[in-house]
Amino acid sequence: MRAIRLSFVVPVLACAALAAAALPPDVERALKDSKYVYVQSERKSGFGKPAEIWFLYEGGTVYVASPPTTWRARRIKAGRKKARIAVGKTDGPSFVATGRILHDPALEERLMAAYARKYPDGWERFADKFRSGFKDGSRVLIAYTPAD
Questions:
Q1: Are 128 and 54 in contact (CB under 8 A)?
Q2: What's CA 115's distance to the chain center, in Å?
Q3: Distance CA 40, CA 123 (A)
């Protein structure tokens, strides 16, 4: 009997957690159609100025690549992980997210392949910088997931 109750409770809790972090349909649609997101990282006094950046949207997460010296990366390292992500334009549909820096070579490759498709006019100029940056640490991968 106990195994039956647990097999019911675990999926229900998992669904509840996913529902809490789900994005509104307008944000979801904009993430699939837009070329840019505008990241406002969390300052001590609130959110900073929006910075336009290329992105990959995959599995409910927004991924960006950035030098570790940018304010968005430095604030995450300092423990201020919240950010406001506006999609398409600074006053476009938005959501509050939690950022984390990660190193995942397979994901970095997928991000670069997506950038090559999504930004064909600009990618050629930056491809080598991204590739070498991920290898030598002068570029980091940041994942933004919707905050609870």
A1: no
A2: 14
A3: 24
Cα–Cα distance measured from residue 85 to residue 96, given in angstroms and rounded to the nearest whole number: 6
Q: What is the pTM of this model?
A: 0.84
**Interval 19-28: pLDDT, tens:** 446 899 999 9
Q: Which residues contact 11 (CB under 8 A, 6 or more apart)?
A: none
CB distance 67 to 139 below 8 Å: yes
Q: State the CATH architecture for 23-146.
A: Roll (2.30)
What average pLDDT does the structure give for the chain? Answer: 88
Strand partners, 21: none
Mean pLDDT, range 67-80, rounded to an integer: 96
Tell me if 141 sits within 8 A of 106, measured CB to CB: no
Query: Residue 41: left if φ>0, alpha if ψ -120 to 50, beta else—which one?
Result: beta
Distances, alpha carbon 55 to alpha carbons 9, 15, 34, in Å: 36, 27, 9
